[in-house]
Amino acid sequence: MSRRPLRVGVAAVLLIAAAHADDGVREPSDYRTENYRAPVPATLAGARVLSTEQAEAIWRAKSGAFIDVLPRAPKPKNLPAGTVWRDQPRQDIPGSTWLPDTGYGVIAPATEAYLKRGLELASGDDRARLLVFYCLANCWMSWNAAKRALSYGYANVAWYPEGTDGWAAADLPLAEVQPEPRSEE
Q1: Which residues have CB under 8 Å from 164's CB, separation 6+?
Q2: Contact, 43 vs 49, CB < 8 A?
Q3: Which domain, by its residues, includes 173?
Q4: Range of weakest confidence among 11-15, 75-79, 87-91, 147-151
C-alpha cells in the first residue's frame, strides 16, 4: 500500500481545518451597529474574554463589578386606556448593575451619560477596578459596551460573551433585578 494517498489526505484535512479556523467572526475595528443577536468574535482588543468558570470565580470572589447591558423592552405606544403594563422581569447574575440599552453601536448622548454614570457607580469611580460586561450569548451589545468602557479609560475590562445564557446553563444562581435608575433629564 502506498503512503502517498495518506499524505495527500492528511494535507487536505489540514487545509480544510485551517480554512474552517478562519470561518470565525472577526473582531471589527468599530462598534457593531446592526444584527446584534449574531455570532460574536472570540476576542476584544484590550479586554479579557471570560469563560463561565472564570466569570463564576470572579463573582464568587467579589473581585469585579458585573455590568449587564441587555436592552429593556419599551412600553408599547398607544396602549388602550386602562391597559396594565408590566415590565418583563430580568433574571440576572446576582449583584450585577443593569444598564439597559447601553450596548448599541450608536447611542444618544443621554444614554452615553447614563452609561458613564453607571460605570462610575459600579467601579466606585476607580478606572482600574475590574468590570465584567455581559448580556446574552451571541449578543454584540456586551462587546460594544466593553469596547466603549475601554475608550473611557477603564483599564481592567472583561467580556463574558456567554452572558446569562451561559450562567443559567451552568446552573448558577440568578436573581431578578431592576435597571439602574436614569436621572431625570
Answers
A1: 68, 70, 91, 92, 93, 134, 135, 136, 174
A2: yes
A3: 45-72+89-178
A4: 11-15
